[in-house]
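To start, an entry.
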Amino acid sequence: MAEIMAFSRDQVRRLTGLSDKQLRYWDDTGFFSPRYAEEDRRGAYARIYSYRDLVGLRAIAEMRKSVSLQELRRVGEWLSRNYNEPWSSLTFYVAGRRVFFDDPDTGELTAGRPAGQRAMRIDMARVERQVDAAVQRLRRRGDEQIGKIIRNRYVVHNVPVLSGTRIPTAAIWDFHEAGYDIAGIMHEYPTLTTGDVEAALAYERNLPSRSERTG
C-alpha cells in the first residue's frame, strides 16, 4: 500500500461497514483490538489500526453476516494462540453457520464439513482487493487537508508529512534545494497541490536549524 498505513476507528468504520459500537465492544472485550495505541494530549490512548487489522476486520464483517459472534469468538480464541495475524493471513470457509479454516501446514480444513453441505470460501485475495479499493477512495484528500502539515508516530516514523499522505516535508525541501521549482516538485508527487508544496517549503524554511544557517 502506498501512503496510508495507520487508520483511526472512524476510518475503519467507514472502510469495513462495522459500527463504532461494534469496534469499541470488540476492542474492550479482547475479541479484536487494534495493533497500536497512541497517547493523545489528554493522556488518553487513541486506538490505531494497521492495514492488516483492516483486512482482518473486513473478513470478519463478511463472515458475521452468516455466523454468530459467539462462533467467531470461539474460533478467534483458538487462532490467537496459534497464529500472529490469523484473521488476515488464513483462508476461511463458512458452512452451516460455522467457520472453518485451512491449516497452513497441511492445507486441510481444521474440521470436517457437515454432510451434503458446501463451504463458502472467504477469498482473502478478494477481501484485500476490496480493502485496497476502499483505501484508495479514502486517500482522496479533502480540502481541509491541503497545505496542512501533521506528525503521527505511526506514519513515516513521526516526521512531518503533508496531511493525508506519507510525503515528508523534508523530501519537498530536498527537491527545492536541488533546483526544482513548484511545478517540478508536483511532477514528482502528482497527488500534491501548489498549496501543499508551498506549505512544505514554508515549514522547512522556518525550522530553527534552517533559520540559523540562513540567518
Q: What stands out?
A: The domain at 6-138 is CATH 1.10.1660.10 (Multidrug-efflux Transporter Regulator; Chain: A; Domain 2). The first strand starts at residue 6 and ends at 7.
